[in-house]
UniProtKB/TrEMBL annotation:
GO terms for biological process: late endosome to vacuole transport via multivesicular body sorting pathway. GO terms for cellular component: Vps55/Vps68 complex. This is Vacuolar protein sorting 55. It comes from the Eukaryota. Belongs to the OB-RGRP/VPS55 family. The chain crosses the membrane at residues 12-33, 71-90, 102-122. Keywords: Membrane, Transmembrane, Transmembrane helix. It comes from Amorphotheca resinae ATCC 22711. It holds the Pfam family Vps55. It is a multi-pass membrane protein. It is found in: Membrane. InterPro entries: Vps55/LEPROT.
Amino acid sequence: MAAGLKTIISLSFVLAIGFLLVILSCALFKQYLPLLVVATYVLAPLPNWICGRCANPDDFVESSGNAVVDFGRFCTGFLVVMGVALPAVLAHSEIIRIPAMIMSIVGGLLIYGTIISFGLFFQEEQEF
């Protein structure tokens, strides 16, 4: 699948909408704690990437490094769930309002979805 200019433009548009929602959730209600969601979603793909590089299985042995890859997936899942749960906990404790929580969660999911989509569209093909 070849990724072209239209893919880059659409991904950047979705990323901009995600950042806009998170920033608006902070600015409209004058509470800037939902910006932590951006940090969790930006950091979420890093454990997968790092553990995928560290595992580096041999061509002859397919099962080597599965524990490292599983640990990276666990850390990524933890960060994604934390990105959704953090605004919910902040809204439950009445630090932020419910509309700010919704905008923060939707914006964060758009940001994370864009990062993952970018990685899927522009990954290098391995040649043997």
